[in-house]
């Protein structure tokens, strides 16, 4: 797929000498959902703010569909929608007026049918004449998304879009994001909720301490770095791991009543059948087993932890 956004060598160092971003290179494919993961203070919001023209970079270039986002800011910004973390609306204005005003800010007028569809998609149409101050926190978050979509952007940035909202509303937003993608909108989101990235993303980027640690397709990342774990319940407890299992990554659990074995998913050796065969060979009886495949959260914690230890 062609790149719709290209970030090349973008960095940010403040006057105080603090480096918020080391030089970052990143290409976003047209029509994909890209999730940027990282702990608090990692640089996620800084990177998005630079791309959207809110923060000035210390170096590097940004190309948005052929437009230099620094030199040709206005043309690039019209192609981008941003849903910020913080609520930034006039609390005394109505929902409909707020969204229409955002559309006019980008030089677009009319097209009431489009605005209506956006509000309906976000379950805001019935609240269109309500003042922002009258809405719940979740509805205010939806208004931010409506504002970002008002001028029909090709790229939508979502900075912690579901922070502080309930699970039901989070699921509704996930559905909306999928619908936007089917309409051709490219989505880039930052999140603390690992399940959001696991649920929606095509590719995942991990940023930590201002450095882009990894960018990879989600399926390939989980295949390459994911681990599986099997917990085998033993008929009789063991006092120690048998010497014949010394070359296996096994340990005793449940006071010797279980054996825990970890192995790389999709690795060269099929871990579970091979282990069970080995146990039979050693006359170790078992009664049950449970398996667990590592999630994207496990991989993320492992990556950041491994980097800290390096």
TrEMBL record:
Keyword match Lyase: no
InterPro entries according to UniProt: AAA+_ATPase, ABC_transporter-like_ATP-bd, ABC_transporter-like_CS, ABC_transporter_ATP-binding, P-loop_NTPase
UniProt superkingdom: Bacteria
One annotated GO molecular function: ATP binding
Alphabetically ordered keywords of this record: ATP-binding, Nucleotide-binding, Transport
Stretch forming the signal peptide: none
All residue ranges annotated as the ABC transporter domain in the record: 5-234
Any Pfam family the entry gives: ABC_tran
Name listed for the protein in its UniProt record: ABC transporter ATP-binding protein
Lineage: Bacteria, Pseudomonadati, Pseudomonadota, Alphaproteobacteria, Sphingomonadales
């Amino acid at each position: 797929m062609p790149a719709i956004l290209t970030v090349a060598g973008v960095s940010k160092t403040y006057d105080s000498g603090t480096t918020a971003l080391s030089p970052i290179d990143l290409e976003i494919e047209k029509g994909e959902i890209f999730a940027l993961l990282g702990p608090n203070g990692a640089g996620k919001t800084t990177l998005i703010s630079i791309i959207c023209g809110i923060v000035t970079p210390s170096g590097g270039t940004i190309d948005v569909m052929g437009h230099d986002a620094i030199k040709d800011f206005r043309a690039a910004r019209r192609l981008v929608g941003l849903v910020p973390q913080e609520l930034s609306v006039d609390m005394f204005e109505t929902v409909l007026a707020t969204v229409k005003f955002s559309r006019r800010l980008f030089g677009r007028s009319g097209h009431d049918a489009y605005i209506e569809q956006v509000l309906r998609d976000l379950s805001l149409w019935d609240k269109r004449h309500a003042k922002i101050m009258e809405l719940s926190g979740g509805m205010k978050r939806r208004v931010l998304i409506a504002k970002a979509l008002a001028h029909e952007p090709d790229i939508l940035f979502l900075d912690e879009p579901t922070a502080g909202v309930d699970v039901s509303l989070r699921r509704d937003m996930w559905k909306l994001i999928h619908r936007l993608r089917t309409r051709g909108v490219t989505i880039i989101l930052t999140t603390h909720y690992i399940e959001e990235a696991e649920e929606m993303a095509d590719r995942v980027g991990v940023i930590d301490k201002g450095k882009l640690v990894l960018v990879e397709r989600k399926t390939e990342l989980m295949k390459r770095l994911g681990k599986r774990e099997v917990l085998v319940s033993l008929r009789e407890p063991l006092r120690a791991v048998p010497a014949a299992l010394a070359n296996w990554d096994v340990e005793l659990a449940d006071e010797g009543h279980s054996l825990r074995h970890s192995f790389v998913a999709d690795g060269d050796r099929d871990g579970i059948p091979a282990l069970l065969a080995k146990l039979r060979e050693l006359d170790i009886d078992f009664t049950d087993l449970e398996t667990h495949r590592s999630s994207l959260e496990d991989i993320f914690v492992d990556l950041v932890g491994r980097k800290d230890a390096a």
